[in-house]
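Bench notes, bay 3.
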Amino acid sequence: MNTFEFVPAHSVAEAGELLTANEAPAKIFAGGTDLLGEIKQGVAHPARLVSLQSIAALRGIALGDDGARIGAMTTIAEIAAHPQIRTRYTALAEAADSVATPQIRNTGTLGGNLCQRPRCWYYRSPMFDCRKKGGARCFAHDGANKFHAIFDGAICPAVHPSDTAVALTALDAQVATESADGARLLSMQDFFAAPGVDVTSENALRPDEILTAVIIPPTTTNLRSVYLKAKERQAMDFALASVALAVEIADDTIISARIALGGVAPVPYRAHSAESAMLSKGISDIDAEHIGRLAVEGATPLTDNAYKVRLASSLVSRAVRTLLSSE
């Protein structure tokens, strides 16, 4: 492990300045549950860690008629346990509750969960100079790829590991950021960066930019959401595949539907064809198995992960049945 400097920031502006001061390679330190692992594995080599733990403005959950605002330093455990999040934004609470272990949920933050790096073993090993680390080759394509992408993986098939990202995508959330150039509000689609945009990064944050909060639109009594996750072990494991489904129902008719898949692509994956097939349909006319099949249309599995196609399809079908049967 290389020597590094640990510097607490007391404001978002100060954090941004510290990230670019003296041109020293620096990283944000939130909960540290992912970053410290990268440093120990020899994947990340920061000269400075900029801690956000002293910035009280980045913590907390505020709900009102205009929706919800969740500070980036709010812990995963706080989100999972919040009664109004569980009621209004059920998929997010369920996703938060599925993250790792109680110890990690009590330390890990929402911002950190969204910005965590992939768990691809080639990326995580200092022995492989893969594309995500600036190399010229992806070792997963012709190697061990059981846990890799079945969508959009031509450049890099490492899947995004965040559970909350999948739920927030289905809930049409936005990410608030701040930098010396001002504040930005990005959709989940614009926040996450596919390998074709920048293979070495998973998001659109600039070098001095801080993720400050997540904004979720207001809900109605007609909105239902659910998060389902399949994993090899029941405790402390990442998704083999996951789905977040959010539907709005009025007069037994689906007036909006958003389906996001996790564990199957480098960023949270929207199943647009499956969503379209649900719109304006009566709940009794929805064929859950058909929606599941549509959700995985166009999948291109690798040698060891074809099982994900059926698994993701089944999760989508189950999510549809779960929400529509509750009406």
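Next record in the batch:
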Amino acid sequence: MSTKKIKKVVLAYSGGLDTSIILRWLQETYGCEVVTFTADLGQGGELEPARKKAEMMGAKQIFVEDLREEFVRDYVFPMFRANTLYEGVYLLGTSIARPLIAKRQIEIAIETGADAVAHGATGKGNDQVRFELGYYALKPDIRVIAPWREWDLTSRTKLIEYAEKHQIPIAKDKRGEAPYSTDANLLHISYEGKVLEDPWVEPHEDMFTRSVSPEKAPEKPTYIEIEFEHGDPVAVNGKKMSPATLLTHLNELGGDNGIGRLDLVENRYVGMKSRGVYETPGGTILSVAHRAIESLTLDRGAAHLKDELMPRYAELIYNGYWWSPEREMIQSLIDKSQANVTGTVKLKLYKGSATVAGRKSPVSLYSQQHVTFEEDSVYDQKDAQGFIKLNALRLRLLKHSK
């Protein structure tokens, strides 16, 4: 631990037990003023209790901010333009929230004259990396405090004892061992740890909060239409919506139809494998719909290049490199590709699945004249013979050389 004096620190503060303990620990350990920052990213629940709790614990500067629109518009939607999936399936719900929190923390640090920032991520996970890479990218000289890497409160029992000693309110459900940890925002909710640590054990149905089980979803499918402009969704069933409102609406539709559950063993950036269970109903719908509109409007070469770059782009976000030059370079390419990704996709939502039922676009590259099985006047099938022979030439030469 550095002995350099800290005057003021901006803490990413949820109002929960862990970050409340961190608030008091920072005050005690560093003797510094603590500024709290609570971001509303659509995690649900009231945020005013976090403000009141911070006041009670002596925080003089308290920031509670609604960032839902910025989160979806400037982080979720740009990521979805790339059809981003980490390790083939994960829609990066936790990962994509961290750069925005880090950015706002640094902005508040500059506004308030703070010389340090702090977070509540543990020393085993990815979030410590994501937060801190963001901090350093945006303010290279910032001091970072990560209590879980410094203190000796290494068990739930010790945390409870510390809270009791310092009169920190403890919710009844926090006195026992939590069955799993959660992280939520407008894009998803995740569940990890404790009862989920054995990857053979199926998660209990009572755990899920954003979706009904596919078995209990309606017997009748729900049809919806999503309208896209330049790669971003702008309307559902003909109704224009803001980014956050649109994603909220799709979350409701997806959750009602049992869509968006994922049970994943993933490779953390720090080196270990971890098992996580996720609910991403609206994001799952958007992922299917965006690919569908691209299938009509993207040139083959552009589409295939995007698919080649996507795993690298996903890895950058997962590992915390949102503010890196390489991520920004790839983003520029992706955004360029979306110029004509405009049109409408019709989806069928039914018992855990979102399937394409139709797609149309005013700038479609699909030519029914060319693909028809009926007689046409635009394509000479004899041309295919020379095309095949030229493409087969190297294969024929290779065989003759053996």
